[in-house]
UniProtKB/TrEMBL annotation:
Coiled coil: none annotated. It comes from the Bacteria. GO terms for molecular function: ATP binding. This is ATP-binding cassette domain-containing protein. Residues 52-171 form the ABC transporter domain. Keywords: ATP-binding, Nucleotide-binding. Pfam families: ABC_tran (PF00005).
Length: 230
């Protein structure tokens, strides 16, 4: 019996992918444990691609399925709940200044799931510590340093044991010292059957042949081009 894909893009075309050709078709299948490294030098295109994978920007043609379900066929409340199984690190600023840091980190799970807030807070605290913070940050989000915001974004993405991780240039080409802890967290997620996409604009990451990707692709004008991993 074939294993249900975590993410399956089948000849997907979308006008939302500004910067790709009108006839560009995207094909990508990620099974449990798969890890795609994508050379995505256009940050806006990378964001739009992540939106497509998350069902936030439906394709004009073709299909995008997550855990065997086509985003376009799902009722809104079901799709919202399903997004609770996706963890995402955004390339741009993605924090709400009117909310405290702790709520910002827990917000996707608070919005998309019905998990007990106390349990969620405890898990968020553990993740923050695992990524090098002293605990779940208190106070305003703008009180955190740039590096601590990156760590907080990792905690937010991994909260709730997501089945798909969408990482948009997660280290911003700056925080190379955080690569081992992030790869370790991804490895643990893959061990439990999750899949991950790491989009990068960093030549050092892309050129690292030891990077543990199962697929290497390039996202650009012609869509997604698959490259050899070995």
């Amino acid at each position: 019996m074939a294993t249900t894909a975590i993410l399956d893009l089948n000849n997907a075309r979308s006008r939302h992918l500004v910067g790709t050709a009108a006839d560009a078709k995207l094909n990508l299948r990620l099974g449990p444990g798969d890890f795609a490294l994508i050379d995505a030098r256009d940050a806006d295109l990378g964001r739009d691609f992540a939106d497509l994978c998350s069902g936030l920007a439906p394709p004009d043609n073709g299909a995008v399925e997550f855990l065997g379900r086509d985003w376009t066929s799902l009722p809104l409340d079901y799709a919202q709940a399903l997004r609770g199984r996706i963890g995402r690190v955004f390339a741009g600023r993605s924090w709400l200044d009117f909310l405290d840091a702790a709520t910002n980190i827990m917000l996707p799970q608070l919005h998309h799931t019905r998990r007990d807030p106390a349990t969620l807070r405890a898990e968020a605290t553990d993740l923050c510590r695992a990524f090098g913070l002293p605990g779940l940050p208190m106070g305003r989000i703008d009180m955190l340093s740039a590096g601590d915001l990156v760590r907080a974004s990792f905690a937010r993405a991994f909260l709730g044991e997501p089945m798909l991780l969408l990482l948009e240039s997660p280290l911003q080409g700056v925080y190379a010292d955080m690569i081992p802890m992030l790869l370790n967290a991804i490895a643990r997620a893959r061990d439990r059957g999750a899949a991950a996409i790491w989009m990068t604009r960093n030549k050092a990451v892309w050129s690292d042949r030891s990077f543990p990707a199962t697929q290497r692709l390039r996202l650009g004008y012609h869509g997604l081009a698959s490259l050899r991993t070995g």
